[in-house]
């Protein structure tokens, strides 16, 4: 899977979260699903969207920063805000380059 440039990621993210197609897709996900696809618990859709950690969000199964399609219904699932953030953080941490150090055992 090719890594995307920061410009491509920004363009895909902006496209995914604006306009009528996104609002329609978001409404469709909210209407069709009732459980968080990550933790499998009920999502209270009456909670305030940006303030409450258990509020509803639409999560992209294949993240946009990895080339996921922003407006594909098959790529979007209902999730709690907290679950969505934690999953994204874990994915990013797993992809982060970690330096490795080797020590010659004969010098110890």
UniProtKB/TrEMBL annotation:
Single Gene Ontology MF annotation: endonuclease activity
Keywords noted in UniProt: Endonuclease, Hydrolase, Nuclease
Domain HNH: 36-90
InterPro entries: HNH, HNH_nuc
CDD domains: HNHc
Superkingdom: Bacteria
Protein name: HNH endonuclease
Native organism: Streptomyces salinarius
